[in-house]
Amino acid sequence: MASKLDPPETSIPNPESRIARYFEFNSYQTNFRTEVFAGLTTFMTVAYILVVNPLILSDAVFLQESGDLFPELVVATGISAAVGTLIMGLYGKYPFVLASGMGINAFFTYSVVLGLGIDWRTALAAVFIEGLIFIALTLTDIRRHLIIAVPNAIKTATTVGIGLFVAYIGLASATDTGGAGLIVANEVTKTAFGSFREPATLLATFGLFLTTFLMIRQIKGAILWGIVGTSLLGWGLGVTNAPTGIIELPQFPTHLFGQAFIGLSGINSSNIIDFLAVLLVFLFVDIFDTIGTLAGVSTQAGYINEKGELPRANQALTADAVATTTGAILGTSTVTTFIESAAGVAEGGRTGLTAIVAAFMLLVALLFIPIFEAIPAFATAPALTIVGVFMMTSVKNIHWDDLTEAIPAFATIFFIPFGFSIAEGLSVGLILYPFTKLVSGRTKEVPMVTWILAAVFIFRFIFTTLRFG
After folding, report:
1. 8 A C-beta contact, residue 220 and residue 34
2. Which of 245, 244, 246, 241 is nearest to 200 (CA)?
3. 3 state SS of 302
4. What angle do CA 398, 402, 408 make, to 5 degrees?
5. Is 91 left (phi over 0), alpha (psi -120 to 50) or beta?
6. Which of 224, 312, 295, 222 minimizes the C-alpha distance to 27?
7. Long-range contact pairs involving 219-223 (C-beta distance under 8 Å, separation at least 24)
8. What is the Cα 352 distance to its own chain's centre?
């Protein structure tokens, strides 16, 4: 029994319990440790963007600017990714990471700046305007309805297609760039199985066996430990260069910051048509890459409800739109939701805490670029392959005995990896879906918005073919 002289008992708030309540750990059957490991895993699979995106954008900037802007591009890439991911975690409460999109950054550099001769500042202005349009579309609820307009069969097929896509990206990396090399280019057969004479191929295979072993044994953080173990072995054997340092102070992008505003003044009568064409391509790819990724990874994680809706869809889409706008101001190409987020979901991440951990690591990584720059592609290839395994499990939910569902679903699955674009695969599937329903006399099963989307995609294919070849 307590004495009257004893001080009154006070309860000390537990920060971890408040985090658990905010992110609803119980509802998602997760915990703090799982979310942290998932966040670290997601970060490790997307860390390459801090090096690869600056390398690609450098080709656009270097030809028009004196001096090496690579360090500034690294910081612009990292900050914009962290901002978008943080908003996704805190506001959207989803475990998704955002960063400068692969593919669209290559389009920015090689088609827009080098191909059309548009100044890189003006190209950034197009990305900035695109972000503003996204914000408007999100505020008016249009983008959320676009997600609902994607039929469940196509959502499921997108999940499977993304699974094949991420595995293909991991396994098809070239060995001369530190990639896995398990799938290589071939002039006769287009692609072929790689050679085990390549050390990188052997190490990627080792990493795959190691990660598989850890996953089957249910070791927490199995995917993360697979990346770390394979990297350490590669460094130790001298197959890839070990980190040359540990800490390197980041350089704020002073030569990039705000250049999008200057780029607006570069729009004139001679380039306005090309500018609008570029803006439309940026707009299309970001909208449907994001919708495809959200639909696919959300289906894998079990977020999509029975009505085909993604709860808090507008919050997630807001994070994407704000990140794109922020990225343009900082000096990088379109920021979008990354398919590698599936790695964290496969590791058990189910809430925004996963994204917050990844966002924090993206900022911390700016101090440790020498380390993360040294992580080879053959070390992350096994992680992406395992993610593909998890995402393939959704294929059983497609009604293969109904050709009106099976044909568009198969086309979506096929064209995402082999067309090397989520947006392209989604486009083909959404064109075929209403067509198959039409010829079977089941048009009532197709919402009006889906018909409109199909028409938009057909127009887009015609437009881009005529404009960009």
Report:
1. yes
2. 241
3. coil
4. 65
5. alpha
6. 312
7. 220/33, 220/34, 220/37, 221/37, 221/40, 221/41, 221/347, 222/347, 223/41, 223/44, 223/45, 223/343, 223/346, 223/347, 223/383, 223/386, 223/387
8. 16
The position carrying tokens 């704020």 is 252
Give the distance, in angstroms, between the CA of residue 286 and the centroid of all CA atoms in the same chain.
11
- Is residue 203 left, alpha or beta, with left meaning phi > 0 and alpha meaning psi from -120 to 50? alpha
Alpha-carbon dihedral angle through residues 295, 296, 297, 300, given to the nearest 10 degrees: 110
Model confidence pLDDT, tens digit, residues 339-364:
889 889 988 999 999 999 999 999 99
User: What would the pLDDT profile of 131-162 be if each residue is shown by its tens digit?
Assistant: 999 898 888 877 777 777 788 888 888 878 87
- The predicted-structure confidence for 102-130, as pLDDT tens digits, reads as follows 778 877 887 788 877 888 999 999 999 99
Write down the residue that tokens 């699974």 correspond to.
Answer: 163
The pLDDT assigned to 15 comes to: 66
Rounded Cα distance, 173 and 170, in Å: 6
Counting as low any pLDDT under 50, the low residues of the chain are 1-2
pTM for the predicted model, two decimal places = 0.74
Sign of torsion over alpha carbons 334, 170, 109, 160: negative
How far, in Å, CA of 220 to CA of 205, rounded? 21
As a whole number of Å, the CA-based R_g of the chain is 23
The tokens of 233 are what? 């072995």
Return the number of other C-beta atoms located less than 10 Å from residue 65's C-beta: 14
Helix ranges (H only) for 172-271 are 199-216, 222-237, 259-264
* pLDDT of the residue at 124: 94
Which residues, in sequence order, are bridge partners of residue 99?
Answer: 336
Model pLDDT, residue 35: 95
| 272's tokens | 């306005």
Q: What's the pLDDT score for residue 469? A: 60
Cβ of 233: how many Cβ atoms within 10 Å?
16
Residue 258 pLDDT: 93
DSSP 425-465: HHHHHHHHHHHHHHHTT-GGGS-HHHHHHHHHHHHHHHHHH
Pairing assessment for the beta strands 335-337 and 98-100 based on DSSP bridges? antiparallel
